[in-house]
Amino acid sequence: MPTKRSGPLVGKCPKCGNNIVLKKSFYGCSNYPEC
């Protein structure tokens, strides 16, 4: 399943391994809310 991306890639999620991205004014897992 492709991950949803809404901003620049900044790292990997420590919980699930997917990308951490900048979402407006905060960082979050690209696999949210499934993560």
From TrEMBL:
<dbReference type="GO" id="GO:0006265">
    <property type="term" value="P:DNA topological change"/>
</dbReference>
<dbReference type="GO" id="GO:0003916">
    <property type="term" value="F:DNA topoisomerase activity"/>
</dbReference>
<dbReference type="Pfam" id="PF01396">
    <property type="entry name" value="Zn_ribbon_Top1"/>
</dbReference>
<keyword id="KW-0413">Isomerase</keyword>
<feature type="domain" description="DNA topoisomerase type IA zn finger">
    <location>
        <begin position="10"/>
        <end position="35"/>
    </location>
</feature>
<dbReference type="GO" id="GO:0005694">
    <property type="term" value="C:chromosome"/>
</dbReference>
<protein>
    <submittedName>
        <fullName>Topoisomerase</fullName>
    </submittedName>
</protein>
<dbReference type="InterPro" id="IPR013498">
    <property type="entry name" value="Topo_IA_Znf"/>
</dbReference>
<dbReference type="GO" id="GO:0003677">
    <property type="term" value="F:DNA binding"/>
</dbReference>
